[in-house]
C-alpha cells in the first residue's frame, strides 16, 4: 500500500514541479528542479528526499556560484567555509534543520498522505510553500539580489562564507552596507578585522 501511495505522490509532485513558474532556466526531474540564473552564472537545485523509516519527505536547497568562488580565491578569508569539507556548495539548507519556522509557509517533513483527499491537500500545501517561500529564497541566491543579504543575516550557517557573500552581493548590486538598515551580530562575524574591512564598517 505504501509503495502505491509513494508512487502516486511522486507522480503528483513531478507534475507540480513541471508547472511551477520560475524566473530562471529550469529543468524539472521526478523529485527535483535544477535552476540556472538568467543574470548570473549561478546554479541551484531544489530536491525532495525520502526518509523511508519515517515515510516522509524533506526538501533540500543547494546553490553554487562560480563567480563567488573566484571572489573567495581573490580575497582569501582567514577562516574555513561553513560547508563540510569537500562540499563545494555556497548555499545549503534542508527543512530538517528548521526546528522553528520564521515563515508561515515553511515546511519540515512531508508525510505520505493516506488518502486521495489528503494527497490533494498535501500537494496544494507544497505548492504554496514552494511559491511563497522556498523558490524566492533560492532565487535570491541564484540572482544575487539584495534580499539575499537579509537571508544571510538571518541564517548565516546556510552559507559558505556569510560576510564575504554579503560584500559580494553589495558590490554586485552597486550598494554599500551603510545603505541597509540591518543589525549585524556576533553570530555572523568570523574575524572582526577582516569582516568589517570587507563591509567597510
Automatic annotation (TrEMBL):
Lineage: superkingdom: Bacteria
Protein name: Uncharacterized protein
Lineage of the organism: Bacteria, Pseudomonadati, Pseudomonadota, Betaproteobacteria, Burkholderiales
Amino acid at each position: 500500500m505504501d509503495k502505491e501511495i509513494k508512487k502516486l505522490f511522486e507522480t503528483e509532485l513531478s507534475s507540480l514541479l513541471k508547472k511551477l513558474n520560475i524566473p530562471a532556466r529550469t529543468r524539472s526531474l521526478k523529485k527535483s528542479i535544477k535552476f540556472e540564473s538568467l543574470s548570473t552564472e549561478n546554479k541551484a537545485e531544489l530536491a525532495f528526499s525520502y526518509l523511508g523509516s519515517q515515510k516522509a519527505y524533506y526538501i533540500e536547497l543547494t546553490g553554487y556560484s562560480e563567480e563567488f568562488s573566484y571572489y573567495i580565491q581573490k580575497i582569501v578569508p582567514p577562516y574555513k567555509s561553513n560547508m563540510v569539507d569537500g562540499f563545494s556548495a555556497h548555499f545549503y539548507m534542508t527543512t530538517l534543520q528548521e526546528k522553528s519556522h520564521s515563515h508561515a509557509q515553511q515546511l519540515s517533513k512531508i508525510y505520505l498522505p493516506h488518502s486521495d483527499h489528503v494527497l490533494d491537500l498535501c500537494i496544494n500545501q507544497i505548492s504554496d510553500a514552494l511559491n511563497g517561500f522556498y523558490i524566492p529564497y533560492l532565487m535570491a541566491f541564484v540572482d544575487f539580489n539584495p534580499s539575499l543579504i537579509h537571508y544571510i543575516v538571518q541564517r548565516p550557517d546556510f552559507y559558505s562564507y556569510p560576510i564575504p557573500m554579503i560584500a559580494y552581493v553589495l558590490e554586485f548590486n552597486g550598494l554599500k552596507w551603510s545603505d541597509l538598515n540591518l543589525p549585524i551580530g556576533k553570530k555572523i562575524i568570523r574575524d572582526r578585522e577582516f569582516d568589517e574591512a570587507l563591509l567597510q564598517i
